Structures are given as C-alpha cells and as structure tokens.
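## retry 2 of 3
previous attempt timed out at serialization; input unchanged, resubmitting
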Amino acid sequence: MKAPSSVILGAQALEQTFPGIDPFIFGAYHQDHYPAGNGQLGPDPTLLKGRDIGMDFSRQDGWSMYHGDKIPGFPAHPHRGFETVTIVRKGLVDHADSLGATARYGEGDVQWLTTGSGVQHGEMFPMVHEDKDNTLDLFQIWLNLPGKKKMAPPDFTMFWAHDIPHVVQIDAQGRRSEVEVIAGNYAPVDAAAAGGQSLVKALAPPPNSWASEAEADVAIWIIRLEPGANLTLPAASSQARRALYLTTGSTLTVDGHAFNQRVVVEVRADAQAPLQNQGTEVVEVLLLQGKPIGEPAAAHGPFVMNNQQELVQAIQDFQRTEYGGWPWPSHAHTHGKSSRFAKHPDGRVETPSVGE
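## retry succeeded, writing output
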C-alpha cells in the first residue's frame, strides 16, 4: 500500500518473519513465553503433546519448539555467504559452531556472525529458570555479504548489552524515547533533547561486513517511544534504503500517517522521518538501513550466493566437508547452568562486566 506522505514510500503488514530490503535479506522476530524449565533446560515433556516435534512453529500456548526436540531452538545447521545479527532482548541463546566456538548470550546482548565461506552453528533456547517462566524475545536479521566477501573466513563478534550505546531523548512535552544503536552512528536531530549528544558511535562491526564499508551507511537501531512521545529520525544517504518494522504496539504515526497494526514501512532514507506514539502503550520499532549491494542473489535455504553455480558449489562443499564438521556431542549443544560467556575458536573467553 502507498501512503500519502513525502517520506513514506510504502507499507505492508508485518508477520513473524519479515522481508528485508537490500542489503538485508530477511528478518525474524521471536517472542516465546516458555514455561518454567524441567531442570534439563527444556519444558515438561507433557507439554510437548500435540506438537510436530522437529518442526514446531505452532505457538501453541504462546511458544514453539522450532527444530528442537527436548530443548527449543535450532540445532546445528549450515550457512554460507551472509551474516546473521541476533539481538536477544529477553532470555538466553546457547551458541555452538563448527569452528569450535561457543557462547551463552542474551538479556540485551547481540551476536554478529559472519558465515562467509561456510560454518555450521546451533542456536538453542535454554529454559534455565525452574521456578518461573522463561520468556524469549529476539530478532534475527540476515545481512548479505557482497560477492567479494562471500568467501571470507567465518567469524563471530559479541556485543555485550552494557557496551551497546543507548540514546535517551526527551521531547518538548517531556516524553521519553530511546534509540539502541546496534550498527550505524546516530546523530540526534535535536542534540539538546538527547542530553547534548550530537553523535553516538556504534560498536565496530566485523571487518568483512558490508556494515564495515563507510559508504554503505548500514544502520540497525531499536527505537522505543513511550505513550505520546515524538522523535524525528535523522536523514541518511540518498543512496540508502530505510525500513521501519513496528513490532510492539500498534499506534505508530510516521510523518503524520497513522498505522494501527504491526507493519513494515519503507521511508526515504535521505529525509528526516517524524515518529509519534499516539497510543497508551510503549511502541517499539526496528530500523534497518543500508546502501543496496546491488548484486544478483541466488538463495537456497541457509545459503545465499550470487549465482546458481556458486549456490550448487556451496551445497556440494557442505556435503563434502560439513564446513569443518561438528565437534560437539549433540547437534543441540547447550551449556548447562553457565552464566553468559563467549569462547572464540582461538580459545579466547569473553564475559560481560562483573555486576551487570
């Protein structure tokens, strides 16, 4: 649908998985209200009745097992040719991969995985709490790699929650908005409303990412507006595309045009975009922005290449090498009662700040 606005280019209803705009391939929003765990990081087995175990996307009782059988999640599977950016706002994710790396992250952390020439990884959702519900709330975004970087070495980068910049702005009516700056520097239109901040720099993306190219103008922001709050997004490059995904709330106004359902709105990147929450509940918007890579794409499930020949090669390489094989005892590898951590293939271990 086309909206009557000088800023809005188009809009459509938003589903659990949503379309990307080049350079983004697609995204998914998972919100699962898992019950208390059974002491083995999964649900009580009696709650699995009526589910298609191994392919459960039912949202029965407000949650899904996905491809997990005893623990929800996505056991080991391959990727080549793009990046995954996983933003976990609530709950935990247990990562393991064919490089020998492992991690448990969540509660605001972000993992940025460059799959490059090929990697297997598993993403399980451990139900660590046995005395209360285990809510999981996350975005996973697929960001394409340009052809020259599709065979780059695989790598993963952790952005711990305490390191990710947040910009709080107070509008003229005293109402609060917040921008979480995951990628792409943020320059508030009204620096005074942002406490005098004129430029907020994001953490450095992985070196082979399209986001590491300065002219690519890639941005990933999460915008939260309290009821009645106004926020104007700064303009970006005229070569970029920009989309707003309304994932929480249903009362977003963009450039004076009201949307009353979950929606994705593409707006001009080179124009300021006035946003307002006219409802009584908090509104949350995911912003994806970037200069299109502008190359042909050939995709088959977990592989995204430039042409059919490269795609066939990606599949054959996986069948031959399994991208290094799977070094863990289970394809649904988890980390017991561990706290948050990340162990890299070279043995280096990261943890969040003490006391976070």
